[in-house]
Amino acid sequence: MTTDARGFDTKLIHAGEPHPRIRGAVVMPLFQSVTYEIDPAEAGGGYHHGARYIRLNNTPGHDALQSKLAALEGGQAALVTASGMAAITTSLLTVLSSGDRVLAQRCLYGGTMGFLKDECSHLGIGVDWIDADDAGSWEKSLTPATRAIYVEAMTNPLLEVCNLEEVARFARAHGLVSMIDNTFATPVNFRPLELGFDLSIHSCTKYMNGHDDIAAGAVIGPADWIGRITHRLNHLGGCLDPHAAFLLHRGLKTLGVRVRHQNESGMSIARYLAAHPGVARVHYPGLTGHPDHARAKGLFDGFGSTLSVELSGGPVAADRFMSALRIPILAPSLGGVDTLTMRPAATSHANLTPQERASLGIRDELVRLSVGLESVEDLIADLDQALASCRSVASAST
After folding, report:
1. Residue 75 half-sphere exposure toward CB, CA atoms < 13 A
2. In terms of residue numbers, what domain contains 329?
3. Residue 3 resides in a domain
4. CA–CA separation, 59 and 196 (whole Å)
């Protein structure tokens, strides 16, 4: 792992930056070029070794960005990709081959679940769904073909926090590659490699960039694994374009101040909603009443700004609530400067059957809220008036 002893916010600004700076530029320049002239001295014994080409994610902009990401989580190396799903799927397809099996947390992001359910079976890769909160049951799902275990730091959309320490320990004990989607926590709040995970994956579309204007992904870990994943990505072609790399590099520099502010706002709004009579349940690990609160408090430096609520009055009340909001935008995604809201049953997990969603606890009235950087007082006032508009629906349902 890297040994950069500087503080986290200092790493955000300075880690990975070129030295000397390119023509003295304080800001890493945008290299809007697909290909680069080959330096024969770098090429050594072969052309490909010294080639800089956009599909290989090895341009000066990519190098700086990947070095910064590695430093943030204490990894030896990092790789950026065209989207979070590109990072997830390429990593899984590198770790797993036909005939292999993976242990996967029962409730994951809908796109990840869809890939594991639909695509992996076509490739001859088996998936064993596990209750990530019941460590005693995992060994029963092991087979000689099991190669990896895959979990999320905080599950999407129910914000569950499984026994992550035990996941890392279990993987080491059984020779498995431990993989975690750290998108919801971010390196500000949690750094999985410090806990013993092998690969930390992010949808950088979310908090890491933080401005809802690019799609990007990243995977961070040991140099050997990142090298293998890079080789696979070079064939699959999911490279990050130069302008998106530039914007992600810029967005990372404010990650610390953004996420810490969002941690505070998320907590304030979760407490407000938990006390509101129109809300049946709030899913947010920062609340003392959350079943995973003690575990989350021990693992994380903050609880993020994404939370889910179940409204009294069912799906009709949920839709009325979202329509009445004036500040939050009805849109998918999370982690940006704008507060966003949506119903997972109709968006991120719409590819699951109603029965599958019900078995995971994703109710039709569940509303996910991603708190942005607006004034928390304004957001609470807006939530209050929107909930007031749902009172007649809630009364009719009781």
Report:
1. 30
2. 256-397
3. no
4. 30
197 and 67 in one domain?
Answer: yes
The region of weakest confidence among 43-47, 59-63, 84-88 is: 43-47
Task: Tell me, yes or no, if 131 is annotated catalytic.
Answer: no
* Inter-helix orientation angle 376-388/314-324, to 10°: 130
Residues in the chain: 398
Contact 78, 216 (CB under 8 A): no
Decide if 319 is catalytic.
Answer: no
Domain count, the chain: 2
Distance in angstroms (rounded) separating the CA atoms of residues 391 and 212: 33
- The yes-or-no answer on residue 207 being catalytic is no
Q: Which CATH number characterizes residue 213's domain?
A: 3.40.640.10
Catalytic, out of 100, 181, 198, 212: 181
Asked if 55 is an active-site residue, the reply is yes
Residue in the structure block whose two tokens are 């079976």: 121
Give me the pLDDT at residue 396, please.
Answer: 54
Taking the C-alpha atoms of residue 309 and residue 158, their distance in angstroms, rounded to an integer, is: 9
Q: Which of 68, 101, 106, 206 is catalytic?
A: 206
Report the CATH number that the domain containing residue 337 is assigned in CATH: 3.90.1150.10
pLDDT of residue 50: 64
Cross-strand pairs, 77: 221
CB count in 10 Å sphere of residue 276 = 17
DSSP for 220-249, written as a single string:
EE-HHHHHHHHHHHHHHT-PPPHHHHHHHH
Two structure tokens written together for 318: 């949920």
Enter the tokens of residue 386.
């929107």
Q: How far is 88 from 281, CA to CA, in rounded Å? A: 31
Instruction: Look at residue 84 in the predicted model and tell me its pLDDT.
Output: 98
The bridge status of strand 126-130 relative to strand 146-152 is: unpaired
Nearest Cα residue to 347 out of 392, 312, 308, 313: 308
- Tokens for 255, please give them: 């990650």
Q: What local confidence, expressed as pLDDT, does residue 306 receive?
A: 97
List 55, 147, 169, 281, catalytic entry: 55
SS3 335: coil
Of residues 213, 230, 246, 234, the one with CA closest to residue 33: 246
Tokens 């409730």 correspond to what residue?
107
106, 109, 150, 258: the catalytic one is 109
* Closest to 219 (Cα-Cα) out of 350, 114, 80: 80
296-332 tens-digit pLDDT: 999 999 999 999 999 988 899 999 999 999 999 999 9
CA atoms within 13 A on the CB side of 58: 15
